[in-house]
UniProtKB/TrEMBL annotation, chain A:
Protein name from the UniProt record: Phosphoribosylformylglycinamidine synthase subunit PurL
Organism: Companilactobacillus huachuanensis
Gene from which this protein is expressed: purL
Binding site for Mg(2+) 1: E96, N537
Protein residues bound to ATP: Y55, K94, D499, G536
Record: residues binding substrate: S97, H98, N99, H100, R119, Q243, E317, S318, Q319, S539
Molecular function terms from GO: phosphoribosylformylglycinamidine synthase activity
TrEMBL record, chain B:
Gene: purS
Enzyme Commission number(s) from the entry: 6.3.5.3
PANTHER family to which the protein is assigned, alphabetical: PHOSPHORIBOSYLFORMYLGLYCINAMIDINE SYNTHASE SUBUNIT PURS
Biological role stated in the UniProt entry: Part of the phosphoribosylformylglycinamidine synthase complex involved in the purines biosynthetic pathway. Catalyzes the ATP-dependent conversion of formylglycinamide ribonucleotide (FGAR) and glutamine to yield formylglycinamidine ribonucleotide (FGAM) and glutamate. The FGAM synthase complex is composed of three subunits. PurQ produces an ammonia molecule by converting glutamine to glutamate. PurL transfers the ammonia molecule to FGAR to form FGAM in an ATP-dependent manner.
Reactions catalysed according to its record: N(2)-formyl-N(1)-(5-phospho-beta-D-ribosyl)glycinamide + L-glutamine + ATP + H2O = 2-formamido-N(1)-(5-O-phospho-beta-D-ribosyl)acetamidine + L-glutamate + ADP + phosphate + H(+)
Descriptive protein name: Phosphoribosylformylglycinamidine synthase subunit PurS
TrEMBL record, chain C:
Gene3D superfamilies: 3.40.50.880
Main location class: cytoplasm
Cellular compartment(s): Cytoplasm
ATP-binding found in the keyword field: yes
Lineage, opening ranks: Bacteria, Bacillati, Bacillota, Bacilli, Lactobacillales
Any GO MF annotation of the entry: glutaminase activity
Reaction equations catalysed: N(2)-formyl-N(1)-(5-phospho-beta-D-ribosyl)glycinamide + L-glutamine + ATP + H2O = 2-formamido-N(1)-(5-O-phospho-beta-D-ribosyl)acetamidine + L-glutamate + ADP + phosphate + H(+); L-glutamine + H2O = L-glutamate + NH4(+)
Any matching Pfam family: GATase_5
Gene that encodes it: purQ
Protein name: Phosphoribosylformylglycinamidine synthase subunit PurQ
Pathway(s) of this molecule: Purine metabolism; IMP biosynthesis via de novo pathway; 5-amino-1-(5-phospho-D-ribosyl)imidazole from N(2)-formyl-N(1)-(5-phospho-D-ribosyl)glycinamide: step 1/2
Length: 736, 82, 224
């Protein structure tokens, strides 16, 4: 393939195929360069100015997120955010979406999503300690979706298990809108023992740029560069753009990077993962942040394939690669250090002072552009936004459920894929490697202790996109608060948030409104409970045939448990314990699983969330846990009280006998700000005195797996074993 | 009986992580002349003699199941089986 | 006692084993690189779980060619204690120090779960702290943990009391529910479950502790 000339790129508007608009191209050629960019340069701008790298469509909205607290050491703009947890330790975490790659090649797409997020953590000098994931698919009806689910789950497990990090939490949901556009969001949490390490910059004249890790191939280079006949003749398509992960190499890379930063911080000025847009993104960001320039010599780059051009090398998304900035006097030590780990490490360039980004390939200068123009000069867009028509039309609609048989509805709800046990999937993830996991998947949060201390970290992923679809602002608030309740129910104090913002086309005013309003919702909730948003990513254009997914912000939250004695799980512990519902229940059926079950679609508005009351309940539960009053605690979410009660019995094969003022329908209401707790009988008065809010005494835990329920309408006795079977086996049955 | 031997391999441009690891092991055993190792999958499909359209089936089976066209390629041999 | 935890590229339970020895039974322990040439000075060798060399080709197959392996063989042949857990078990079978092989789980998926094991033989260096037929809860985490051997090997294993642990419920389709076996001399044990993850109650179980204590008991006896 011969490269088109700069003039051809302009005349034939080839830049459009790479995603640059006419006005963006105009800006580059007339204002920034004052000449026509050549092929390689056009490619660099097109990828660096993409939404994925530049956030040009979402920046304005993202600024609404709070990112400060007394714990924040580093916030957005780094590979991952850092929060102080005392004793010179910090947690580092981030979530990232890998939606499109997973739709194309589910196993590798999901696997490399996990690999990428792990690199974001250890490039901060932190030791990764746990993984989580949030997955959304179409309904488990046809073979294709099941295949997709199996492959994505296998990819996540294949990578995480091999590298040896426990997957301690996550969620999987199924809705029609994700059938052709699955969401794969992965989160990694790390522990940093050296909070002074400054990473991610390439500074200081003549300092060296070192490439470490796997060789570069043509992985992940999208569309335009491929000869057009590539995907026509099946037999001959010898090239592939799919990134393939190698967790074995990443394990070596992770161990090496963590060790070099811990033992020899003086050798290294900066370190960054080569993620999206590989070499260009990592090096340009490092130089731009430091106010430096760079010279790169691509002939030095370790290559897996032959005859790669500069554009391909710069944009390759080959996995398991890092870039380091190293002081010349230590470069031999650094190269020797990585050699010991059997990793390729080579010097590919050096830092300059002229703020230019210069690339040589085969002794030719193929790029010479201001480094800041790649990262700083990206136009920012102010998109039009309109409230979705459905919200206006349906604002007064209220879904009224119809419960013929409480027992039947109860069992039906337990079998709904969004509610039923996801053990079929998560038991394929190693949740215990490293021998620090205190709470494994299946409870409200995953909990990992910090060895050698009394501390533990609670973590969760949450997103109920059904609520966000009905009311983006309130839905955004709920996403944060549900995550926070999960942390609180586990005995933790919520300290920070990462997010993946998965939405449709931002050029669609309704989709942009959804983004904007839900971010405002997330921001207001985060401010309320002092959980800054310290990292995250944005995935827009999630559509298929012009139909967008539900607006799907995923909130990843981390909590600090200062004393592992406070770790609490959701399962009932023993009979005779008293069961309480904390928080008032109302008729919140719009957006509920019950609405989906009975009405088949979403409709109506959500009630405003009372943030003060929400925070009060979280604070009270935390106090009760730290005073050792609570034996089990479960956040109420999809399927409401009925589901929470059921889930609490399964682990220890217990039952309950309760009497409530709620109607049978209200057993499934999804009113927010509620917890289900059990306490020992002797703590009754202390607990009731502490709870200065609406609480309802429901009844007792019983030793046999029976559900004895009296609602305002009726009395029912159900088999807990049947309920357990329904809940446990539903997904396995559907996956057959 | 017709025997179809199907070989599925990674496309040249796709990282062959297993092949690389095996190559290192071979080198560590002293066989330094081995320059490349590729690892793939092997299948045997048998068809009854009275069925002549099997090649079309093999292609479809490979495209839709045995190989992942995003990253793999395949070839096959046809022979008489017992 | 002084233990060596062998660290192959891709081992990932090495530190878990290290802590189990250091904190669980409070003995000396060192990580030993796969390129090391000697196990001089060690009383026991522990081969950890993980994915040595990515588990590429076959689990454990490539590790067999690492430099330290010659020394592990010598160590085992001298009758000293060798324990392989999970990937370590796979390596020991690939090496031929233990009979049989570990193949893909019956359900073709990775499984991570805490399972009940029966202590079939409590008269070994690794199990003398348990009672016979004691039921213990130990986590498993593997995709290729299904123990396979031919009938002849199985009858030898049974005749020599080499089967040490069996799954109560056959989680992965192993021959005769086998979860762990020793060599004939009973100084080499391989097992798929992870006792090093069952050292503390807060992690869900401390049933694995007795396995490590058994090794100490045994060594004390030998030394006397």
């Amino acid at each position: 393939m011969t490269e088109p000339t700069a003039k051809q790129i302009k005349d034939e508007k080839l830049y459009q195929q790479w995603g640059l608009t006419d006005s963006e191209y105009e800006l580059i050629s007339t204002k920034i360069l004052k000449r026509l960019p050549n092929y390689t340069e056009t490619g660099l701008y097109s990828v660096m100015w993409s939404e994925h790298c530049s956030y040009k469509n979402s920046k304005k909205v993202l600024r609404k997120m709070p990112n400060k607290s007394e714990r924040v050491i580093a916030g957005p703009g780094e590979d991952a955010g850092i929060l102080d947890i005392g004793d010179n330790q910090a947690v580092v975490f981030k979530a990232e979406s890998h939606n499109h790659p997973s739709a194309v090649e589910p196993y590798q797409g999901a696997a490399t999503g996990v690999g990428g997020i792990i690199r974001d953590i250890f490039s901060m000098g932190a030791q990764p300690i746990a993984l989580l994931n949030s997955l959304k698919f179409g309904p488990l009806k046809d073979g294709q979706t099941k295949h997709l689910v199996n492959e994505v789950v296998a990819g996540i497990g294949g990578y995480g298990n091999c590298i040896g990090l426990p997957t301690v939490g996550g969620e999987i949901a199924f809705e029609d809108c994700y059938e052709h556009n699955p969401l794969v969001n992965a989160m990694c949490v790390g522990l940093l023992n050296n909070t002074d390490f400054k990473h991610g910059t390439a500074s200081g004249d003549k300092n060296l740029i070192v490439y470490v890790g796997a060789k570069t191939g043509r992985d992940g280079i999208h569309g335009a560069t491929f000869a057009s006949d590539e995907f026509t003749d099946k037999k001959n398509k010898q090239r592939s753009a799919v990134q393939v992960g190698n967790p074995f190499i990443e394990k070596l890379l992770m161990d090496a990077c963590v060790e070099i930063i811990e033992k020899h911080p003086e050798w290294i000025l900066g370190i960054q993962d080569m993620g999206a847009a590989g070499l260009v993104s990592s090096t340009a960001e490092m130089a731009s942040k430091a106010g430096s320039g760079l010279i790169l010599n691509l002939d030095k780059v370790p290559q897996r394939e032959t005859e790669m051009n500069a554009y391909e090398m710069m944009l390759s998304e080959s996995q398991e690669r890092m870039v380091l900035c190293v002081k010349p006097e230590f470069v031999d030590n650094v190269l020797e250090f990585f050699k010991h780990f059997e990793l390729d490490a080579v010097v590919i360039g050096q830092v300059t002072t002229d703020k230019q980004y210069k690339i040589y390939h085969q002794y030719q200068l193929v790029t010479d552009i201001p480094v800041d123009s790649l990262t700083e000069d990206v136009p920012e867009y102010d998109r039009e936004e309109i409230q979705p028509q459905r919200m206006i039309e349906d604002k007064d609609y209220q879904f009224v459920p119809d419960i013929d048989s409480l027992e039947e509805t109860w069992n039906e709800m337990l079998q709904r894929p969004n509610i039923a046990s996801k053990k079929h999937f998560y038991q394929t993830y190693d949740s215990q490697v490293k021998a620090n996991t205190l709470v494994r998947p299946g409870s409200d949060s995953g909990v990992v202790r910090i060895r050698g201390t009394k501390k533990a970290i609670a973590m969760t992923n949450d997103s109920n996109s059904k609520y966000v679809y009905l009311n983006p602002f309130v839905g955004g608030q709920i996403a944060v608060m549900e995550a926070a309740r999960n942390i609180v129910a586990s005995g933790g104090e919520p300290i920070g948030v990462t997010d993946c913002l998965n939405y449709g086309n931002p050029e669609n005013p309704e989709a942009f409104w959804e983004l904007d309003k839900s971010v405002e919702g997330i921001a207001s909730a985060c401010e309320k409970i002092n959980t800054p948003v310290i990292s995250g990513n944005v995935s827009l254009y999630n559509e298929y045939n012009d139909v967008a997914i539900y607006p799907s912000p995923m909130v990843g939250m981390v909590g600090l448990i200062s004393d592992i004695d406070n770790v609490t799980t959701n399962d009932f512990k023993e009979s005779e314990d008293l069961i309480y519902l904390v928080g008032q229940t109302q008729d919140d059926f719009n957006g509920s699983e019950l609405q989906m079950a009975q009405f088949g679609k979403l409709k109506g508005n959500l009630r405003n969330l009372d943030l003060d009351q929400e925070k009060l309940h979280q604070d009270l539960i935390r106090q009760a846990i730290s005073q050792k009053l609570i034996k089990s605690c479960h956040d109420l979410s999809e399927g409401g009280l009925a589901v929470a009660l059921s889930e609490s019995t399964f682990e220890n094969e217990l039952g309950f006998e309760i009497k409530t003022g709620l109607s049978s329908a209200q057993m499934f209401s999804e009113t927010q700000s509620r917890f289900l707790v059990t306490i020992a009988p002797e703590n009754k008065s202390a607990f009731e005195k502490l709870m200065t809010t609406d609480i309802e005494y429901l009844g007792k835990v019983i030793a046999t797996p029976e559900f004895k329920v009296t609602t305002a309408n009726e009395s029912v006795e159900m088999s807990g074993s049947v309920a357990a079977k329904n809940w446990k086996e539903a997904i396995t049955c559907l996956m057959k | 009986m017709k025997l179809v031997k199907v070989y599925v391999t990674l496309k040249d441009s796709v990282l062959d992580a297993q092949g690389e690891a095996i190559k290192s092991a071979i080198h560590s055993m002293g066989y330094n002349k081995v320059e490349n190792v590729g690892m793939g999958k092997y299948f045997e499909l048998r068809f009854a003699d009275d069925y002549s359209d099997f090649e079309k089936d093999v292609d479809a089976i490979c495209d839709d199941l045995l190989a992942n066209p995003n990253i793999e390629t395949y070839r096959y041999e046809i022979m008489e089986a017992e | 006692m002084k233990f060596a935890v062998i660290n192959f590229p891709g081992s990932n339970c090495d530190m878990d084993l290290y802590y189990a020895v250091r904190d669980g039974i409070e003995q000396q322990v060192e990580l030993v690189d796969y390129r090391a040439q000697s196990l001089e000075g060690f009383d026991g060798v522990l081969i950890p779980g993980g994915f040595s060399y990515g588990d590429y080709l076959r689990s454990g197959a490539i590790a067999v060619h690492a430099p330290i392996v010659k020394e592990i063989i010598r160590f085992a042949n001298e009758g000293k204690i060798v324990l392989g857990i999970c990937n370590g078990f796979q390596i020991l079978t690939e090496l031929g120090l233990l009979p049989g092989a570990l193949i893909q789980n019956g359900q073709s998926r990775f499984i991570c779960e805490t399972v009940a094991l029966r202590v079939v033989n409590n008269e070994t260096a690794f199990t003398n702290g348990y009672s016979k037929n004691e039921i213990i809860n130990i986590p498993i985490a593997h995709g290729e943990g299904r123990y396979y051997c031919d009938d002849k090997t199985l009858s030898e294993l049974e005749a020599n009391n080499q089967i040490v642990f069996k799954y109560l419920e056959n989680v992965n389709g192993s021959v005769e529910h086998i979860a762990g076996v020793t060599n004939k001399q009973k100084n080499v044990l391989g097992m798929m479950p992870h006792p090093e993850r069952a050292i503390e109650k807060i992690l869900g179980s401390d049933d694995g502790l007795k396995l490590f204590q058994s090794i100490i008991n045994y060594q004390v006896k030998v030394n006397n």
